[in-house]
Amino acid sequence: MTVITGNLDQPRPEHESVPGTTLDIRGWVTFDGRPADRIEVCFGDQPPRAARRGLPRLDVVEALGLDDAAAVGCGFSCTIPLPLDLGGSTQPVHVRAWSESGHAWTTSAEVAVLEAVGWSDAFVPTDLPVPEVPAPTDGPLRIAVFTHSMHIGGGELYLDELLRRMDQQYDVELLVISPAGGVMVEHLRERGTSVHVTSPYPVHPHHYEGGIRELQQVLTSWGADAVIANTAGVFPAVDAALSLELPVIWAIHESFALEEFITLNWGERGLHPEVEARFRHALAAAHTVFEAEATLELYASQLPSMRARHVHYGIDVAEITDWRADHDAGDLRAAAGIAPDDVVLLCMGVIQERKAQLALVLAFADLVRRFPHARLVLVGGHPSPYSLAVEQAVTDLGLEDRVDVHPIQPDIYRWYAMADVLVSASDVESLPRSILEAKAFGLPTLATDVFGLSEIISDGVNGWLCRSNSGNALTVGLQRALSATAEAREEMRQACLGEAPRYDGRGYAEAYHRLAHGLAETRRLTRVTVPEEGAR
């Protein structure tokens, strides 16, 4: 008889009221001491949605005295945006979980949805006038670039590749503006790109308008002709540029519904209504660019008036080709203690909940006896509770000789060179740069079928696809990848190498420059200079 234990931690009967923004559902469930295979949440009359599973719950393991080390991944969560018209109503929540063998666990709750928590703070305008924008010149195209971070991550590397290409290929001057420093500041400056580190982008209603004026002063004093914005969270900078009637190209990577994105970034209270209205207006007025068609469609369904387009990520295929020619994969594997007949699965990316590395480790643990030559390498560790939980699980499962966890690092090409398959277990992902880099190394990818991944992975041709948020689906996907013959993987390798040039950065830099140059030229031609009174 299957022993099933579980609990819905949130919402709880004694804390059943929630504000009218988002509902966070959290809990845990085990079947014979192991995590659920998949979990589904129903709220009100909305369609069911998959919950994020495989979250670490060491507290449950200790409280129940569970012996199976895999039990640590018994946690689940789900965030549901709440329509505003539900305020003041009571809605049912149903959670259902299944084991791999089909056993089910269900629980329910009722939540009283409160009216959205209002802002008592008034929106404070500034007394400073909008600065005057200098007339366009005939010199190099001057592009101000707003980004969210100067640390190493997918969005930052996306931008770095774009700017490097634009600087090499076109007559442009670039100014990168970021609210925080990081290792990329010196990297950009060494390349000759100007960098301005500013204060955090304003979102509080007291500071929003004043912060916008300060950003506008930066743009006008530098003489920007056009603006590129990187990530949805930089919307105040987009608003500042649009208010100056500067053309804005806005690269949006986040595959979240707007309400969910706002809550995840700015908390339960969200944004002040005036600030949120400016955010939505900016999305409609800018020229938005998405790396995945699926993400574009998600935003367009919320804001049909968007001027959106799809442009794939770009990587430096020639650089990777040259790097491969100068490095021997066999020598690299030998130096890392990887045997020639080992099959190396590589997961490249910051270790965090949405990338599901703990679920990946647990699925891999179920296969180690069947595939004695399989190894799993995770690159992206950092001192966060989730990342530390992943490392602890590797130890508790006795996988230290089969699973390696390495920190975030700039030197990543060697890991691709040593690997046989790239793995992406994410439940939210627009289009990971790592998959494009893997193609240039000839690595097929096993990935969950979320957002843009099916746009670049053809199951059985250049990789494998599996359902997200399912332990069994991930395990079967790993089985398929590890069971592939050397000949089959070689066919996939050749397919990936043949596709890689399609994603070379030259193409997406050309698309961005063409759009920026065209918008700036239109602005230059349509700007009318009114002669002073008495002038002839």
Summary tags:
536 residues, alpha/beta, Immunoglobulin-like, Rossmann fold, seven-stranded parallel beta sheet, 17 helices, 23 strands, 35% helix, globular
Task: Write up this protein.
It is a single chain. The protein has helices at residues 58-64, 154-169, 183-190, 208-222, 235-243, 258-266, 273-285, 293-302, 317-326, 329-335, 357-365, 385-396, 413-418, 433-440, 471-483, 486-499, 505-526, and strands spanning 4-10, 17-18, 22-31, 34-35, 38-43, 49-50, 52-55, 75-81, 90-98, 104-113, 141-146, 172-178, 194-197, 226-230, 248-252, 287-290, 307-310, 343-348, 374-381, 403-407, 421-424, 445-448, 463-466. The chain has 536 residues and is α/β, with parallel strands linked by helices. It folds into 3 domains: 4-113, Immunoglobulin-like (Sandwich); 141-313 and 505-526, Rossmann fold (3-Layer(aba) Sandwich), CATH 3.40.50; 317-503, Rossmann fold. The strands form 4 sheets. Strands 13-12-11-14-15-16-17 form a 7-stranded parallel sheet, with helices on both faces. A 6-stranded parallel sheet has the order 20-19-18-21-22-23, sandwiched between helices. Strand 19 (374-381), helix 12 and strand 20 (403-407) form a beta-alpha-beta unit. The radius of gyration is 25 Å and the shape is globular. Mean pLDDT is 93; it is low at 528-536.
